[in-house]
Amino acid sequence: MRRILSSLLTLLAVTQIQAQQQRAPKLVIFITVDQLRGDYIEYFQHTFGERGFKRLLAEGAVCHNVRYGFANLNQASAFATLFTGAYPSVHGVTGLRTYSFEMAKEVSQLYDADYLGNFTRDNYSPRNLLAATIGDELKIVSGGRSEVYAIAPDAEAAILSAGHAANGAFWIDNYNGRWATTTYYKGVPWYVEKYNNGNESLPARLGTRVWQPALSADKYDALPCLSGSNTFQYTFKANTAGCYPDLKTSPFGNEEVSRLFNQFLEYGALGTRPTPDFVALTFYAGNYRGIRYSGNTREIQDLYHRLDKELERLIDAVEKKVGLQYVLFVLTGTGHFTSEEVRPEGTRWVGGEFHPKRCMALLNMYLMAIYGQKNWVREFYNNQVYLNRKAIEEAKIDLGEIQARAATFLQEFSGVERVTTDMTLRSGVWNENVIDLSRGTYHGRRGDLILALSPGWTVVNDDNAKDRPKVVRNQAVPTPVIFFGNGIKPQHIYREVEAVEIAPTVTHVMRIRSPNAGDALPIPEIR
I need a surface site. Which of 122, 179, 359, 433 has the fewest CB within 10 A? Predict the structure, then answer.
């Protein structure tokens, strides 16, 4: 009898555990850490507490190697890919900025004159994001009852993680330091308005923000080749150029994201509705703005140490307010790390200097020798060459022919590793050698020729001497994705996981459809 009773109790316990694991979450918190590096998490963990990164790694399902799989990875293309489950060739966002021939200048890919800024002078909307996000699908399936918000230091991260149908997307304005949004979204919750206009706003507290080391000097021992001074101190003064952009790349940018999220947690009734709510948070883990080092600084370790504390406070607050069993946390990075490479003088290096302006001038001379005295080359931007389509059409030149001739010419340039053409990518007659170029560009906005430059070569902008030369690096940045809470089984997955698999995995746990442009399946181990 005891054996039968024991077996029944065991079966009941297992059934309850399985039911808990299979429950759809009431709240999903998707944390994207821009420029997060998995190797830095490992190197710096001796300064971490037990309830931040360490807790996520111990109690979550950890995929250690996320691969994005397309060329020219950057913040904007990474965010769009994470939240749509599609490549830039489908969702259309290939970078933070694009060149507007009509305005003859660079503009944000999200620039939209039809919508005004709220607490900002900038005009943005998600119109150029051509695919649905996780939040969009949740809004559809819930009939609009679910709340969807995004909070980020920058507009692009906020809008791309929020999507089209979100209740709101908020970012720190670069000029006034307040939480800004766009009139594309429905409005600003009363508690955000109050926060922006009260004593808790960032401008009201700016004078107290001083970044100094949080650890003793002997704790900054994780990196062997430290650059910079033995200590540091940064202050942030209003009405000075770059004040708020600087602050966003300090630990205080992450702190501000957490502070605003706490307003939503306190007053937004997150996780209490019959349908799930979704919040996308963006933190930062890159170099401090203006530091010309490649990540080997005391500042970067201090930033990770403080980020660990932010994660601990955030997880504890959500667990207390909503309950960990009802919340799915997702944490991942953007798969890239921006740094400047300062090379010692007098040392020889592989590679040389690539001057886009000179290259375009020679290309134009080559095309003039064949097709006549016209300006056939319009612009070089973001490793893409834009030809003068109007002149080509007027001269009745076959577009595929002139693109092919130009590609053959450019392939002979030192520093050019690969070249393909827009017509080649459109036709689908291409091989594995250019698949990353195909995935990383969108046919409606890309140039006539797409280049991949050789590692070690330095790109020099002759038009603007203030622009620091950029050294080309085909560097893999180890990026994890962690699923935590909501009964997720702790495990470690070391095989390669595609970034486009993350969105369908999240929607699978939520029990809703995956975003409409993503054709990847959920990560099998998390299903």
Answer: 433
Q: Which helix (H) or strand (E) holds 73?
A: none
Beta strand ranges found along 9-100 (DSSP E)? 27-34, 61-67, 97-100
- Averages of pLDDT over runs of 10 residues in the chain (527 residues) are 48 45 88 97 96 98 96 94 97 89 84 95 96 98 98 98 98 97 94 96 95 94 82 91 95 98 98 97 92 78 97 98 98 91 74 92 97 95 94 97 97 94 87 88 93 91 69 82 97 98 98 96 93
Is the Cβ–Cβ distance between 518 and 284 less than 8 Å? no
CB neighbour list of residue 267: distance below 8 Å, 6 or more residues apart: 189, 190, 191
β-strand 416-421 against 449-453: which pairing, if any?
antiparallel
CA distances 439 to 68, 86, 90, 94, 443, Å, are 10, 9, 8, 10, 10
CA distance 475 to 335: 10
SS3 string, 482-522, reads EEECCCCCCEEEEEEEEHHHHHHHHHHHHCCCCCCCCCCCC
d(CA 151, CA 258): 9
CA distances from 21 to 14, 67, 320, 484, 490 (A): 11, 27, 20, 11, 11
Q: Checking DSSP bridges between strand 384-387 and strand 449-453, what pairing results, if any? A: antiparallel
Three-class secondary structure of residue 18 per DSSP: helix
DSSP symbols for 102-143 = TTTEEEETTB-TTS-EESSS--B-STT--S--HHHHHHHHTT
First-last CA distance in the chain: 37
Instruction: List the beta bridge partners of residue 384.
Output: 381, 450
Give the H/E segment covering residue 252.
helix 251-267
For the chain, counts of helices (H) and of strands (E): 18, 21
Quote the CA–CA distance of 250 and 62 in Å, as a whole number: 27
Three-state SS for 377-405 is EEEEECCEEEECHHHHHHCCCCHHHHHHH
- Residue 100: strand, helix, or coil: strand
Residue 287: strand pairing partners: none
Total Cβ atoms within 10 A of residue 507: 21
375 φ/ψ angles, rounded to the nearest 5 degrees = -85, 100
Where are the alpha helices (H) located in 71-229, listed in sequence order? 75-84, 88-91, 134-141, 155-162, 190-197, 202-205
Tokens of 117: 């800024």
Do residues 517 and 131 make contact, with C-beta atoms less than 8 angstroms apart?
A: yes
Q: How many CB atoms lie within 10 A of CB 391?
A: 18
Q: Which residue has the tokens 């064949």?
A: 370
